[in-house]
Amino acid sequence: MSDSYEFVVVANRLPVDEVTAEDGSRSWARSPGGLVSALQPIVRRQGGAWAGWTGQPGDAPEPFDTDGMHLHPVGLSADDVDRYYEGQSNGTIWPLFHDAVEQPTHRRPWRQAYEAVNRRFAEAAALLAAPDGTVWVHDYQLMLVPAMLRELRPDLRIGFFLHIPFPPVELFMQLPRRADILRGLLGADLVGFQRPLAAQNFLQLTGRLLGLDPQEEHVVVDGRTVTARAFPISIDVTEVEELAADPAVQAEARRMRTELGGDRRLLLGVDRLDYTKGIEQRLEAYGELLADGTVSNDDVVLVQVATPSRMRVKEYQELRARVEREVGRINGEYGAVGQVPVHYLFQSMNRAELVALYLAADVMVITPLRDGMNLVAKEYVAARHDDQGALVLSEFAGAAAELPTAFLVNPHDVEDLKRAITDALHADGAEQAERMKPMRTQVRDNDIDKWASDFLETLGTISEDNDKGLGGLILDGDDLRHGGNR
Ligand code: ADP
Ligand code: G6P
Hints:
This protein has 17 helices and 17 strands. The chain has a nine-stranded mixed β-sheet with strand order 5-6-4-1-7-8-9-11-10, with helices on both faces. A six-stranded parallel β-sheet has the order 14-13-12-15-16-17, sandwiched between helices. By secondary structure, the chain is α/β, with parallel strands linked by helices. The longest helix has 21 residues. It folds into two domains: 264 residues, Rossmann fold (3-Layer(aba) Sandwich), CATH 3.40.50.2000; 209 residues, Glycogen Phosphorylase B (Rossmann fold). Strand 7, helix 4 and strand 8 form a beta-alpha-beta unit. Bound molecules: adenosine-5'-diphosphate (ADP) and 6-O-phosphono-alpha-D-glucopyranose. Adenosine-5'-diphosphate (ADP) binds next to helix 1, strand 12, strand 13 and helix 13.
């Protein structure tokens, strides 16, 4: 039998991606996205195993140990990538859970592949977890895993966290076989969401679709209490602060500023190239500001970093084409020889380069149409030890609830976007500090370690009660926090 682990994370992706170079040689690189940014420091510090996909179709490589973690690759065939990953996960669930900002597609073979692949992840977790161990399942790609895993291993503590928004009840109701998703999630003892409303929507649906009787943040299923609660995710503040304090990173920030045009004010966007991120609306607003003369190419520059993402999915290819066309148009119309108003970087960067950009930026523009959290916003705040810089932030990012002194904006409203960007550009040093300080306190007091310990301690308490046969009793929040021994 293979080694077993007290703590196992299960996510669609491993923290590293397998990369094939042009000469066919293979290597590993950090995987894209906020899930990996958030979880990697936790698993590294806590030790344990991580089951996930390598990002490449084909047989899974052998499990290996790295950085204090045991990585257990789960293989996806080319068909699985097509149907489970690009199809059901990113063509159906992703758009639906993001307020259907793109039309979700519903296909039966995608759903079948989703179920089959979820079973494979559940089997991997069942194999890896020690008796009575803890398994933490992550995100929308694996919502059936908790129930499948409980069937295989009833001894385990099972937690689930959804990194993306959970949709309003009416939207969720559109999902074919929607009750299966709820039953899948209810296999966990604790289901975590980014926002309280998401937990409420989920609980309400267990009543409406499964005939259960949710009470406050709990629902009893098969004699177990399942708790649904918000645990807003965060970042590794220490990592960002250390990079921001590094003289080499600071020198890089100064170099970037000089190269971008000396005293031009720097606007910055950093996103995966995803239609949820509002990149087109941002460019439209910036283009209009240039057109009406509110800003000029002589005094402002926008750097837009767009991380390549899901590039085989049609909607993402089309988005890329539209974004690049708009960047070209703006630069063509308002640029000059040797100086353009938009620098567009379609590439991944290392952490030091990103933090240097955060330090260099006068205004960080984060305008998703819908976002579970948005860790870039928190990274920008954590990097600004000088209490300077301004954050323009969409009201529809989970982070807005925690960062109310940002320049909050409705990204669907171009006029409002223009207003927020202009206000941010005009904020003097004192206003910047007044807005930045409370945001920095919030992010520092609620970092990723606190998020993980809040979740895992709550999970421990709930599972213990379920083990003691107390699960059928609905416990209130205080009982849970204090051991729930009634
Ligand atoms: P999402 O999870 O939807 O991609 P988040 O903002 O929550 O959005 O997380 C994105 C993460 O990816 C952040 O930790 C950010 O630093 C990182 N990131 C974003 N763009 C890049 C890039 N071009 N290169 C490397 N890392 C990036
Ligand atoms: C978001 C999702 C993650 C996903 C990441 C990158 O953060 O919540 O689950 O891993 O985007 O997307 P990808 O499809 O490349 O894994």
